[in-house]
């Protein structure tokens, strides 16, 4: 292909993607609305794309930029002079490393565990799965915050880490970090605060005079914090920070191996080779926006959040899950409204709103992550129309017999043929076996919602497995 053909193909491939600018994609991407900063960041990514973060002595520019980013974050999280940090590929890697470091700090514990609230991000369950730790899940209270007393009671001699969220992704509220951290410290256990969403917003919210539950290193007992640069620092994708109170706490995170004929492998992250592009893009973004700029962006995003939350509260058919404490808003049906249909109707109107399936006694909800570029009046106008359309359409029916069958299935026993049938029945595969999403997702989500979590996982893994296969030559 010629360069021009490649450029045209790239444009064509991107046509079906969600927009990354405009403030209407309310998950996955975060938009500051600063076109010049975005362009500058892309230049930085391109300039350093070939640089390799594997060896900071070979590419000292990347180390210098990483240290600058950690120094900027130190003020936000009220870190002591001893605070250190590591740039990672995203929030999940930051969380994985926090768990891995806590595990490896206690080699004497044969079967280590972590204690988390049930609203903790799934990344911590992924860490438990990858690294062989038991994940002790403690139910949250009626306010959707972690139950500090119950978490303290769950600690035992196998606990290597306790986790709190600032805020939790699903509900947008901050856990009682001071009480959780105090209980962890009393037992000599690390306490990690997952501030991947809130780390670049909550400090500015406090400066703007808004009430914020203490969550930073100013809280005694907090040993590490994760905060994403590619969320509300508005940097290009692939950049997060894992911050530790002291170098000693970070040390078990490192991996080194000299027992082979090649170079001594020395890694601070799960990756070895890693492009310098995200580092440079994050550094350029933070330098361009600066502290005063982030204060303005936080004020815009928080004001938009307030307006949207207030609009939902007065809109018939929906109710807030909780009063938002950052920039995340979740809402459930208040009456005979299908939230999955609302999400579909919002998509028709050019807004991506994320559906969240039911969990135990919690009903399904719609979820939005509001950026500085989000226009609340336009969002609420579209939401009002979408709710009216969903009420007119009525609920998405699920045959009771089908629901009973789904609840009875054991995903462990399902083979490819059975999974193919489930994909077809759920609308994720066509008559010819082709895999893809339908234009409207309400019926798919309704079926997934009545399925037990383990079956949801099996079906969606099968969907992703089949989706991620190259098209055969000649087809």
Task: Give the structure's gist in a few sentences.
With 475 residues, the chain is an alpha/beta fold.
Provide an overview of this structure.
The chain has helices at 3-14, 35-48, 60-76, 91-104, 123-131, 148-154, 177-186, 202-207, 247-250, 277-314, 339-348, 376-393, 400-408, 416-425, 442-450, 453-467, and strands at 84-88, 113-117, 134-138, 159-165, 190-194, 224-228, 240-244, 255-257, 265-267, 318-320, 328-333, 354-356, 365-369. The strands form three sheets. It has a seven-stranded mixed sheet, with helices on both faces. Strands 10-11-13-12 form a four-stranded antiparallel sheet, covered by helices on one side. It has a two-stranded antiparallel ribbon with strand order 8-9. It folds into three domains: 35-286, Aspartate Aminotransferase, domain 2 (3-Layer(aba) Sandwich); 292-393, Aspartate Aminotransferase, domain 1 (Alpha-Beta Complex), CATH 3.90.1150; 400-467, no CATH class. Helix 3 (60-76) packs parallel to helix 10, helix 6 (148-154) packs parallel to helix 7 and helix 10 crosses helix 12. The protein is globular, with a radius of gyration of 23 Å. The two termini are 20 Å apart. It has 475 residues and is α/β, with parallel strands linked by helices.
């Amino acid at each position: 292909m010629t360069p021009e053909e490649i450029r045209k193909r790239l444009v064509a491939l991107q046509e079906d993607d969600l927009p990354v600018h405009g403030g209407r994609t309310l998950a996955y991407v975060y938009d500051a609305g600063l076109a010049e900063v975005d362009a500058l960041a892309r230049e930085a990514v391109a300039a350093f794309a070939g640089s390799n973060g594997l060896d900071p002595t070979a590419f000292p520019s990347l180390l210098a930029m990483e240290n600058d980013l950690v120094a900027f974050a130190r003020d936000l999280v009220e870190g002591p002079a001893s605070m250190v940090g590591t740039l990672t590929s995203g929030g999940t890697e930051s969380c994985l490393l926090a768990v891995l470091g806590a595990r490896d700090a206690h080699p004497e514990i044969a079967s280590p565990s972590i204690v988390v609230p049930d609203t903790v991000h799934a990344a911590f369950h992924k860490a438990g799965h990858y690294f062989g730790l038991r994940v002790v899940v403690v139910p949250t209270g009626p306010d959707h915050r972690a139950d500090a007393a119950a978490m303290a009671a769950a600690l035992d001699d196998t606990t290597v880490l306790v986790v709190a969220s600032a805020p939790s992704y699903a509900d947008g509220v901050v856990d009682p970090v001071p009480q959780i951290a105090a209980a962890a410290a009393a037992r000599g256990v690390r306490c990690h605060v997952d501030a991947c969403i809130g780390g670049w917003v909550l400090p500015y919210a406090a400066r703007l005079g808004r009430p914020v539950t203490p969550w930073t290193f100013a809280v005694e007992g907090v040993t590490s914090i994760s905060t994403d640069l590619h969320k509300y620092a508005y940097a290009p994708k692939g950049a997060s920070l894992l911050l530790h109170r002291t170098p000693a706490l970070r040390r078990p995170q490192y991996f080194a191996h000299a027992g082979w004929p090649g170079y001594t492998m020395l890694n601070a992250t799960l990756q070895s080779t890693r492009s310098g592009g995200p580092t440079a893009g994050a550094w350029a973004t933070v330098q361009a926006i600066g502290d005063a700029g982030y204060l303005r962006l936080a004020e815009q995003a928080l004001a938009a959040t307030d307006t949207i939350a207030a609009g939902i509260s007065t809109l018939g058919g929906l109710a807030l899950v909780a009063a938002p404490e950052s920039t995340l808003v979740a809402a459930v049906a208040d009456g005979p409204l299908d939230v999955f249909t609302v999400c579909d109707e919002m998509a028709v109107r050019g807004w991506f709103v994320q559906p969240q399936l039911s969990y135990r006694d919690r009903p399904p909800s719609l979820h939005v992550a509001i950026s500085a570029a989000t226009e609340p009046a336009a969002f609420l106008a579209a939401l009002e129309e979408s709710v009216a359309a969903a009420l007119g359409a009525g609920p998405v029916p699920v045959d009771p017999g089908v629901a009973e069958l789904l609840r009875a299935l054991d995903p462990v026993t399902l083979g490819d043929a059975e999974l193919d049938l489930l994909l077809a029945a759920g609308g994720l595969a066509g008559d010819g076996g082709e895999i893809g999403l339908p234009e409207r997702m309400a019926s798919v989500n309704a079926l997934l919602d009545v399925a037990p979590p383990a079956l949801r996982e099996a079906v969606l893994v099968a969907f992703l497995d089949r989706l991620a296969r190259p098209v055969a030559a000649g087809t």
